[in-house]
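Sequence only, no structure available. Ideas?
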Amino acid sequence: MLKKPLLTLALSLTLLPATLEAAAPREWSYRVMEKQPQPRDHFVQGLQIVDGMLYVSTGGYGSSRLLQYRLADGELLRVRRLHPRLFGEGLTVLGEHVYQLTWRARRLLVFQREGLAPKTTLPLPGQGWGLTDNGRELIYTDSGHELIYLDPDSGRELRRVPVRDNGTPLPRLNELEWIDGKVWANIWQEDRIVAIEPDTGEVTDSVNLAGLLPDSERGPGTDVLNGIAHNPVDGALWVTGKRWPWRYRIELVPAEAAGNESR
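Reply:
I predicted one. Tokens follow.
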């Protein structure tokens, strides 16, 4: 068994110097280490762990919410319901604020982290899909193949970085998570997540999560894989999906050694 955690190993590896051809991403599978129950009505659009708290954004017109759980025991502490005409999307916690995207309303909702009290609304240049931050700037996606950087105070667009997977533009970037200097992303309607260099947009790692939710656990409303959360305290990587009954803590395993075993 490797002594160094596989997630840390994956994130610490660096790319070789750029060549004329794009480097193929490293391929990973997974091992389930733990799972926590999740309400099946959570149409998960955003997920983040900060200071022992799990923040969740759910979607759906009339059912979109911003929720705060205590991670240790799963107790629901706070709920903020969105206006019925707003469809919640990705979220991120930056400083003393929680930012939550809306899908088509071109609005970025800003809440006080303490108590989830609404603070203000910022403009979005397009649709809202995934959201994270690098500690200074917001990074969001709009269904396309670009990481879009925003000023967290004004919502002003700062720059765009095209994302490429082995040289090919990678669209449908959905839920995002900043982990040790890289942007991790769900790809809508795919059973995988990818790690992206935030400055170049190159995909460096690809994780195949096929089979994570067994067919026996799927119901009529079960939707796609979506939701990535990294716990800075212990380095744990959690993933889930829309209307999934579980959140899974996974360990990355090199694809060639994959057995998708759980314990």
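Confidence is low (pLDDT under 50) at residues 1-20.
Hope that gets you unstuck.
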